[in-house]
Automatic annotation (TrEMBL):
Belongs to the esterase D family. GO terms for molecular function: hydrolase activity. It comes from Mesorhizobium liriopis. This is Alpha/beta hydrolase-fold protein. Pfam families: Esterase (PF00756). Gene3D superfamilies: alpha/beta hydrolase. It comes from the Bacteria. Keywords: Hydrolase.
Length: 285
């Protein structure tokens, strides 16, 4: 006899924005009663692809707090009403900062790819998603973290620079800082941080996001094209430089860190990065 597998504590909610567009919220609520101040929260982009990994990482670690220093918390992963891991068209709009531009379709006869909707998505999270979560489970407003990978990392950093009080912790894995002529750096330069509220920022990248391909990629037929993209993206260097810049006492003076995931390519990073995000967002001491 077989039956469908479900994650205990998980639920699915479709939420409309003011235009009527629907995004899917995958929500995990821990067992037991919430602390008096509410649960800490880890919000995530690319929820369809990352939710299950994050929940399992939390369940495995929170069950053994003396060995992991990880406690329970709420995971809220935003995605789209699809069974696929990603919705490339919608995430291209939602996760990329303005002003954005228009690119050729992903598929023949498909719609043009538009970028630049990160402000709208950020406002949707602030005005609709966070209040909705608060109706489902008590949240500690002083312990909200935001995780994103790739475009999601770009979005997390954009949110840090444009709405720095929204999340106390930003976890940006393999962020595409180079995107659209490094426009994020201009947003960073304009950021205004309240020194009484200093978010912490954890940036990371994979070992094979520098100027060398992973060994298994070196013999593939698209090796030269991949190498050219790596060198253009400069993911490791841009993330390292941003972590150092944001930590400067004469600058933003934020709590920052950078981590390199050994042996990982761009698409291999999410799995170890999610485990680290759990440890950061739900740290006990």
């Amino acid at each position: 006899m077989s039956r469908a597998y479900t994650l205990q504590g998980a639920s699915v909610h479709d939420i409309e924005d003011e235009t009527g567009a629907v995004r899917r919220l995958l929500l995990f609520v821990p067992p037991g009663e919430a602390p008096a101040e509410g649960w800490p929260l880890l919000a995530m982009t690319d929820g369809n692809a990352c939710f299950g990994t994050a929940v399992d990482a939390l369940r495995a670690q929170a069950h053994y707090p003396k060995g992991t220093n990880v406690g329970w918390g709420v995971i809220a992963a935003l995605g789209y009403p699809t069974d696929e891991a990603y919705d490339p068209l919608r995430r291209s709009w939602d996760l990329s900062p303005p002003p954005g531009t228009t690119y050729p379709p992903f598929t023949p006869n498909g719609p043009d790819v538009r970028t630049g909707g990160a402000d709208d998505f950020r406002d949707f999270i602030e005005s609709r998603v966070l209040p909705f979560i608060a109706t489902q489970v008590p949240i500690d407003p002083t312990r909200r973290a935001l995780f994103g990978h790739s475009f999601g990392g770009l979005f997390a950093l954009h949110t840090l620079f444009t709405r720095p009080s929204l999340f106390q912790t930003i976890i940006a894995a393999s962020p595409t800082i180079y995107w659209e002529d490094c426009g994020l750096l201009a947003t960073e330069a304009r950021a205004d941080f309240d020194m009484a509220i200093r978010p912490s920022v954890h940036l990371s990248a994979g070992e094979h996001e520098g100027d060398r391909l992973a060994p298994f990629q070196e013999t593939q037929d698209d090796a030269m094209e991949r190498l050219e993209k790596l060198r253009k993206a400069r993911t490791i260097l841009y993330a390292q430089e941003m972590a150092a810049r944001l930590a400067r006492p004469e600058g933003a003076n934020l709590h920052t860190s950078f981590e390199l995931f050994a042996g990982e390519t761009h698409m291999g990073v999410p799995t170890p990065a999610l485990g680290r995000a759990i440890q950061i967002a739900f740290k006990l001491k």
